UniProtKB/TrEMBL annotation:
<feature type="region of interest" description="Disordered">
    <location>
        <begin position="176"/>
        <end position="239"/>
    </location>
</feature>
<feature type="compositionally biased region" description="Low complexity">
    <location>
        <begin position="226"/>
        <end position="239"/>
    </location>
</feature>
<feature type="compositionally biased region" description="Polar residues">
    <location>
        <begin position="183"/>
        <end position="205"/>
    </location>
</feature>
<dbReference type="InterPro" id="IPR051210">
    <property type="entry name" value="Ub_ligase/GEF_domain"/>
</dbReference>
<dbReference type="InterPro" id="IPR000408">
    <property type="entry name" value="Reg_chr_condens"/>
</dbReference>
<keyword id="KW-0677">Repeat</keyword>
<feature type="repeat" description="RCC1">
    <location>
        <begin position="102"/>
        <end position="154"/>
    </location>
</feature>
<feature type="repeat" description="RCC1">
    <location>
        <begin position="273"/>
        <end position="352"/>
    </location>
</feature>
<feature type="repeat" description="RCC1">
    <location>
        <begin position="459"/>
        <end position="509"/>
    </location>
</feature>
<dbReference type="InterPro" id="IPR009091">
    <property type="entry name" value="RCC1/BLIP-II"/>
</dbReference>
<feature type="repeat" description="RCC1">
    <location>
        <begin position="353"/>
        <end position="404"/>
    </location>
</feature>
<feature type="domain" description="RCC1-like">
    <location>
        <begin position="242"/>
        <end position="504"/>
    </location>
</feature>
<dbReference type="Pfam" id="PF13540">
    <property type="entry name" value="RCC1_2"/>
</dbReference>
<dbReference type="InterPro" id="IPR058923">
    <property type="entry name" value="RCC1-like_dom"/>
</dbReference>
<feature type="repeat" description="RCC1">
    <location>
        <begin position="405"/>
        <end position="458"/>
    </location>
</feature>
<dbReference type="Pfam" id="PF25390">
    <property type="entry name" value="WD40_RLD"/>
</dbReference>
<protein>
    <recommendedName>
        <fullName>RCC1-like domain-containing protein</fullName>
    </recommendedName>
</protein>
Amino acid sequence: MEGVFDRPKFLTSSPLLAVNAGRHNERPELRHVSVVVKMEVVEKEKVVYMWGYLPGAMSQRSPLLSPIVVRVPQQGVGVGNYSWKDVCGGGCGFAMAISDSGKLITWGSTDDLGQCYVTSGKHGEIPEPFPLPDVISIVKAAAGWAHCVAVTEIGEVYTWGWKECIPSGKFLGESAEDKEVSDGQSSFPAQQVSPHTQGSRSTVGAASGIEPRGGEDGAKRRRVSSAKQSAESSSSGDEGLSALPCLVGLNPGVRIVNVAAGGRHTLALSDIGQVWGWGYGGEGQLGLGSRIRMVSSPHPVSCIDSSSLRKDRAMGLSHGCPGPEGQGLRVPGNYIKRIACGGRHSAVITDAGALLTFGWGLYGQCGQGSTDDELSPTCVSSLLGIRIESVAAGLWHTVCISADGDVYAFGGNQFGQLGTGAEQAETLPRLLDAPSLENMHVKVVSCGARHTSVVTGDSKVFCWGWNKYGQLGLGDVIDRNIPSQVSIDGHVPTNVACGWWHTLLLAESPT
């Protein structure tokens, strides 16, 4: 989110009219006085708060039940400190934010007990720049279950994490004579990164919680375990080696402006509103029209075409705009302006405010009125006529915001993550009518694995859903099925970003 500044203050004066004394018969002489216009721009100090499960953020590695301020990293002796620009959530057990100077700041994971499920590279206990090349400046970043992705100011994309999430590209430090990209190894310079190349192991699962556990100290491997299954996984017992940061190979001239990371898939949005996808697509979350399991290079995702309302046409619905003769209904809009990734599903918004979803539909998280998977981007027809401005996706749920500031939620609701006051799943978007949000204009939304957070136009923060690790910031570990306000004293919240089991908040000093 861009920084917020005070309104400029101007010193102005009108031309002065003076009569030349002693020459009363002559016309008055108009004298223009030069006035210096001074623009006063004062940047407000930005602060990042964190709460939830960030094992390395506290020495005792216990959950943070209430918001605490994140320490600003130091740039070096005599250089000063970094300043915050935005928050990016982070994946499982670590956090990400962006500094004003374009550095990706990460923190919160641990190495010795294997309590976070990341990726190669460093996400230490103390916030510090992630070891990417000094010459690049990061403007957007996201993290999924097992990988991270970041966008530079010139529209390039870097990604790292489990090999299966990483597309073909050039690994940092690799020359033409090095090993092929596909084998995932790299001679990344030691001064840029000191990675812990690790395997990751998981078991398969859906309804049960994902609980942290210790790993093998010697190999410092990070594992995922649960009583039954984990939500995102490779096949049971497999180990996928982590890949070092690499530059994603895109078509010439493609400039990316935003990215979203799901369980094991990635979406990228270009400056002309084209969506690109790669990674795992077994449930249709890449929107390619099939259950292709792995896409190893970025592919364009066709979002706005006549097929997107195919179901509505078959049911005789009249939403949408007429397409060319013989092609039925067309999705409103000409390009995509927002993207979001959930555990195994995705959502995008057109410039006309139409919401499209695709991927896993078991809990109704595609909002199509069924539990079917959607293999191609499909318009959420029940929201046509309502201009959708923002969308976020969790493990099994989706939440979006209209231009009027209303909140609509659908999908899994086992922990109250929809905020409806119940625990019943919703296969169609449901307008939240919670008393706490009455007359509130919601501006920002973010979803963790099973919790949701929003920021309103008057800078209030609300959270709801799963709270086992304090990810709601309410001072306890009690789940909430309605929006509950988080107390932030002394600063004005502007943006929120949820990790899978934690929440980050960007705030600024008051006026």
